[in-house]
Automatic annotation (TrEMBL):
It comes from Puccinia graminis f. sp. tritici. The chain crosses the membrane at residues 194-213. This is GPI transamidase component. The keyword Methyltransferase does not apply. Coiled coil: none annotated. It is a multi-pass membrane protein. It is found in: Endoplasmic reticulum membrane. The keyword Cell cycle does not apply. One of its GO terms (biological process) is GPI anchor biosynthetic process. Pathway: Glycolipid biosynthesis; glycosylphosphatidylinositol-anchor biosynthesis. Keywords: Endoplasmic reticulum, Glycoprotein, GPI-anchor biosynthesis, Membrane, Transmembrane, Transmembrane helix. One of its GO terms (cellular component) is GPI-anchor transamidase complex. The lineage of its organism: Eukaryota, Fungi, Dikarya, Basidiomycota, Pucciniomycotina. Belongs to the PIGS family.
Amino acid sequence: MEPVINFVLWVPSPNHRPFKIRRTDGTFDSDGSFIRPQWGSVVIYNPDEKSMSSDGVPRLGVTELARPMQIFRHHLLSLLGLVDNLETPEQRALALDAIVRRRIVENSLEAINSMQVIVKLVDDQTNMRVSMEVQNQVKGALASLKSAQEELMKAEGSLWMAALHADESKTLSSTAFFSPTMLSLLYFPDEHKYAIYTPLFGPVLVPLVIALIKELKSRRKKKSLKEKEE
């Protein structure tokens, strides 16, 4: 699943208005909002009497949402690792390129890690069968990873194309790793084999063992009688 940034605008019930967030130093947060890293942010909106409709439901028009949207904009930049004081388009473009490059590295490393785990599983599990679908997905992930690398090495390569190739490589490798055809054979140790085959061979082995014990006792008895006669 691709990462998602969540933005929640929470309107407290009339009994809990105004709802404010108290800081650790005892003061109240002026914006009434907070950020949860790698998830998103929450903005608390306490409507005033002017923004209430006749049935008691707050109106959320352009005017009412202007301030929350400004806060969400600031939160979005913070979640993406961008500062909010980038003035020129060149500065914003460089900051955006840095984010894209970092995302390319993250997706590429994740794809490589998934494929390394698949190779290790196949080497360790001798009874694991790799379907043609999984093989094609791994080959596609390798091809996309190579395309991303080649795009970055070009003199006039497209950073966005490299990002798309890296994302495709991560998706294919993850799909191959979590394929039902592989997960069904991922963990099948010898103990499971014994538990399955023992009930089948048990009825056959028990009479053989009893017959072997009787044969050994008979031979010992014959040997003992022979020694006494001598």
